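Hi L.,

You mentioned the student needs an example of a multi-chain input paired with its predicted structure. This one should do, with 830 residues in total across all chains.
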Amino acid sequence: MKKNLLVAQSGGPTAVINASLCGVIREGMRHPEEIGMVYGAVNGIQGILEGTIIRVDDQFETAADFELLCHTPSSALGSCRYKMPSPDKGPEQYAKILAMFRKYNIGYFAYIGGNDSMDTANKIADYCYEHGEEVRVVGVPKTIDNDLPITDHCPGFGSAAKYIATTLMEVAADAEVYPMKSVVIAEIMGRNAGWLTAAASLTRELGGSYAPQLIYLPEAVFDPEQFVEDVRRELDKRDTVVIAVSEGVRLADGSYAAESMQSGQVDAFGHKYLAGVGKYLERLTADRIGCKVRSLELSVMQRAAAHLQSATDLEEAVRAGEKAVEAMLRGDTRIMIAYRRISDAPYRIAYETAPLGEVANVEHKIPRKWINEAGNDVREELVRYLAPLIQGEVSIPMKNGVPMHFSFDKTRLAD
Amino acid sequence: MKKNLLVAQSGGPTAVINASLCGVIREGMRHPEEIGMVYGAVNGIQGILEGTIIRVDDQFETAADFELLCHTPSSALGSCRYKMPSPDKGPEQYAKILAMFRKYNIGYFAYIGGNDSMDTANKIADYCYEHGEEVRVVGVPKTIDNDLPITDHCPGFGSAAKYIATTLMEVAADAEVYPMKSVVIAEIMGRNAGWLTAAASLTRELGGSYAPQLIYLPEAVFDPEQFVEDVRRELDKRDTVVIAVSEGVRLADGSYAAESMQSGQVDAFGHKYLAGVGKYLERLTADRIGCKVRSLELSVMQRAAAHLQSATDLEEAVRAGEKAVEAMLRGDTRIMIAYRRISDAPYRIAYETAPLGEVANVEHKIPRKWINEAGNDVREELVRYLAPLIQGEVSIPMKNGVPMHFSFDKTRLAD
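Structure written out for the whole complex:
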């Protein structure tokens, strides 16, 4: 008997997570002899638990609708940050999921997400297997943080990296106009892994001496005194110094650099002052160097800026979704789609698979040897690794001057 | 005897100030029978005072170089925030400028800038006239704030508006993924005029009910209690509420809303805590409503994002530069190029001129009648005014995945 396909999205948004969703749905619809209907769970695993499951294969009228979905940022099916307990701690939740799979005759389950999501997918696959339910479970990687193991890189990272490099160039151009000493500090996402911050170096591929002049990553110990010296030295060479810093840089004792500024005082509302590392370094620069200084956060813009999708990232994200369906149809389960890099130039990758159990809860960080000894810049090897991932521009659908986004009708629940 | 043309840029950067610069230089070079050489002053009026003047007409090898300049954000000639004293307070500065004009045989001076810059241009024009030096002085408007009088709108505003609307859409998509009540607050530039913040409403031109749901502008009195009520009401209707707020919103007593949070306490460096209105409203929301809340600042990105130039804004900015040269050749002086809107749909404008003296130091704000009575949203008239300004997309020159920018050689000073 033909089985149905269920797809869901989880974790933080990216600019191309919907491209992978498009890949799964469209590829699923290409195999009517093996796959019956394509369902989507609203808000990831939480939607399965709550029974908010919709048909998605009947929500596309034309090929242009699929295109539109590919260029829509964030998770069109909604997301969740629901952490599944182990089956012995939460048996009723697993039973609920199994019941839903049976109710909708699910034989294929594609879960698009990052680290935690792969752990969830793995647990569900194990549980189904132990209970004799044949559901093939395949994970589709997704994270701007680029911190999944085994795979060379992750869908979503390249587009965020392109946004970061482009924005840093523009911010640097903005900062350089006045004839005075000034420092600009850009705080970039990445609590434990510095891949996104390292992407700020991609401006150098243009050949000139582009900003940022200093790059601080969580993989190297952060020393405030060294920072002040670094900035002083760079200010001696030029008027404007642009700095890219990861939100997660830590001192030698392992604490976050920004913590050293938290004074325990409260504001008019009684809330503790909490500032990010950008604000911390801004204050440090003002205090110790005394020049004009500005900090800015690329915030959620860096993960949602679909208008600056990397063509490479977009194509790979779609293909990852398609490959997940192909793998399920081959009979694969408990795996995640992974990229293996064949060469940097010309850039070529192969699509492979990794066991979910080996991906779940493992964080892939930047090798220390790809960071310079002083811990204030990236090495050439890292730029070479990053550069192919942001290549290629995408023409996104626009209407009345702003991007068009796709949205599902999530109110019509499946029977 | 043929005279030379001098051009300079002043004030804060925009995404298209270099497009106006391109218009001036290229048009200047098209009239060799009347204009000798085209010079640029580095860092605006400050460059004239310090004698940092370069040839710019010999720095373009091909038409593509002019194109590149048009797509380069910020001020390629550098900028300044130098406030000229009145001639009786600083006669030596005016004498210096006059001497430079004479040294370089300047007969045409184009100054690209905002409010203060038009004041500077006006003073210089007066001084030259009084001292018998025939220099035709024409201002080219430039400001993301859109607050210059007489002209229908200002070059630079449309591109910033397009960036703001696009970013708000992406940020809203990002915020809407989790099934929980949440509030996102985007702090947008505009200390006295709310045009930029109002541009967040342009997502509505797509026809749906797009974010932001609440828009607060400096032109309407801000009431924190009303804000809390507004947010509560919107949260009753939907999970995610997106708010656009101008950095300059003020309470009934005229003080900035953000000031009410400043507690006078100092951080570990002894600096006073200074937070923007976004952070203030974030705290207010957390304190009074208690849901998930995030604030973000569009910071300098909103004025530097040349990768999202509005085609309309870009074309008009180039034309404003060209028109300035045309006006000077006609014999006009002490004027600024201005746009007059002929119709909204189809959108048509005429290029006119305004006396510098009537432009200098006057701030053009949003008419209160274009804001709704509650002061938490814009009216249809305002959207109709704004919509044409962000129309059209531009394909910017890219290399290795990031935008290419033009730069002048500023080290070779003119003889």
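You could point out the following to them. The longest helix of chain A spans residues 311-330. The CA atoms of residues 179 and 345 of chain A lie 40 Å apart.

Best wishes,
N.
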